[in-house]
Q: What sequence folds into this?
């Protein structure tokens, strides 16, 4: 069935466009659009409108990746630009790429950020304290802005807080900017997420 092929493609657990889904499943765009509407109505998939287009993702985040899902994501992850600047780069004035996505996932997993809906994230009280310490200035905002990452197809932190965060990471020499959007990582990502950083007792939240 077409719906099963679409769900199998989306088992890669990434946001994909209509065009990408239709290419992976070899179905016509109009038919694909109709099937996606049905799956969204049945709450099997979620749709987020971002940067002028719709992106689709499975609602069930526990579904295992099928062979088609793996093949689809392998192809997208091998795009030339995704390889060149996929590890860490600027997206406007905030951190994107694998580093940006992993950081945002860490914030969620450690209850500094809470997801209310597909595109609605807020800072928790603990998150406000942690960011205030790290940025050495008061953070009072609640609602967060996110982007669907170009190369990772998952959310990363954007907006004003994302800009302030990247500036502080640069200031602390955790990362360094380059002239070609790439960001050089001076401290390995694994050291950003040590258990020690969960303690709200210093301004070294992401420092080793």
A:
């Amino acid at each position: 069935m077409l719906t099963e092929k679409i769900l199998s493609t989306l088992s890669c657990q990434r946001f994909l466009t209509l065009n990408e889904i239709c290419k992976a499943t070899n179905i016509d765009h109009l038919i694909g659009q109709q099937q996606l509407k049905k799956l969204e109505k049945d709450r099997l998939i979620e749709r987020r409108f971002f940067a002028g287009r719709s992106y689709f993702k499975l609602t069930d985040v526990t579904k295992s990746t099928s062979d088609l899902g793996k093949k689809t994501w392998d192809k997208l992850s091998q795009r030339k630009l995704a390889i060149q600047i996929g590890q860490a780069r600027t997206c406007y004035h905030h951190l994107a790429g694998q580093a940006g996505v992993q950081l945002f996932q860490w914030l969620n997993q450690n209850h500094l950020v809470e997801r209310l809906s597909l595109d609605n994230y807020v800072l928790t009280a603990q998150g406000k304290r942690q960011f205030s310490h790290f940025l050495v200035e008061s953070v009072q905002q609640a609602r967060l802005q996110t982007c669907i990452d170009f190369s990772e197809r998952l959310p990363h932190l954007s907006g004003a807080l994302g800009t302030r965060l990247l500036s502080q990471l640069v200031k602390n020499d955790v990362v360094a900017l380059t002239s070609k959007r790439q960001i050089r990582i001076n401290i390995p990502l694994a050291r950003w997420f040590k258990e020690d950083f969960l303690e709200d007792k210093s301004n070294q939240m992401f420092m080793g």
In short: The two ends are 51 Å apart (CA to CA). The longest helix spans residues 29-41. Residues 195-208 have pLDDT under 50 and may be disordered. The first strand starts at residue 16 and ends at 17.
